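Supplementary Text 2. Reproducibility record for the structural model of the 206-residue chain.

All settings were left at their defaults, and a single model was retained for analysis rather than an ensemble. We include the record here because the model underlies the residue-level annotations in Supplementary Table 4.
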Amino acid sequence: MFRLAAQSLLLATLCLSSAIAGPTDTEFSCAGPFGRDASHAALVQAFGAPNVSHEDVFVAGDTIPMTVVFPKDPERRLMVHWLDDDGRRGLGSVVIQSPAWTVGGATVGMSIAEVQRLNGRPFKLVDFLGSDNDGQVLDWQDGKLETPLPGGCRIGAVFGVNDADIDQVQAAPHPDGLLSEDPALRAADPRLYELTVYFLGAEGGK
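Retained model, structure tokens:
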């Protein structure tokens, strides 16, 4: 349940930060500093040394060494996993849990209904049964978000549900995946918690 608690805290923080001062959206591009041949050095050059660090990050139930861009700014923070971590080069995946970045039109904090409209059709995600993969999108089902972004990268996503609403989602398990239009799921008001950008064939990709 650690992930669910973390998701609940993040969702509450997102609502509070939006009420205080909404961040300026930055459209993510899988080119330039975030292209397939990206490197830690290139990110330092693009964003400045004070805005780039290399540290152990807890992601999906595991601690992984990653490059972190804007490590001290929760509104813009994103994390990069390298195929070659020793050389810190070769983009494996980018993990975004902050609301400032827009990826293919999707932004952390969006409702599942908003993401379904953006996708153009219902999609399938992992059921909320207490695993590290809870709420992860399994299949965009040929929707818009399945189409690679300019530069050739793909979009992954994870949704979070507040602990107070989880019982109504778990009442009827869905071992083959949960559809985004499921009435019980919609009633729990899941929010987009994490966006992942990856290249096909890269470690951590599909």
